[in-house]
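DM from R.C. (forwarded with permission)

"hey, sorry to bug you on a friday — could you get me a structure for this? deadline for the figure draft is monday and I only need the backbone to look sensible"
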Amino acid sequence: MKYAIEAKGLVKSYGNKQVLQGLHMNVKSGEIFGLIGANGAGKSTTIDCVLGTKKLDQGTVKILGNSPNPKQKSHFEQIGVQFQESAFQNGLTVKEICKITHSLYKNPIDWKMKLTDYQLEHHVRSSISTLSGGERQKLCILLATMGQPKLLVLDELTTGLDPVARRQIWNNLRQLNDEVLPFY
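My reply, with the result:
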């Protein structure tokens, strides 16, 4: 497969405001790809439309060779996603969300081993609501990689991370990219 993502002529409006205006993009398999723009430029909307979680006004998308269908479990089994904003049920612990997410996949990673990579090993019994913003971000990235996806989509990847944590996350992701997956 040449492209992990193929998007042609994407148009999306909110009321009278056109956010995406005929966007075309191709992301090659194995490529690290970033969307850069000012706040409100449409980066998150682009991600949502590409994933099929928001309906396009016009345009076509192929992810891993298929049209996105968020209602099909197989669609998200192949794609790891960390959205810009993540909400968790009150009182849920790191261990509980990891176990729940782990149970959704056929061949998930050993999340207990990966907690150390994300410096979360001491928070396994902590309520997610007690984690700092950066710790929550690391948890979301860990959850997005749990199913060993063929494609990893990360929105606002380094928000809330200190410079050391940013470097570590990038190193973890480069290692993942070398092993198995493209991401953007």
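R.C.: lifesaver. Residues 1-71 form a domain with the Rossmann fold fold (CATH 3.40.50.300).
me: no worries. The mean pLDDT is 87.
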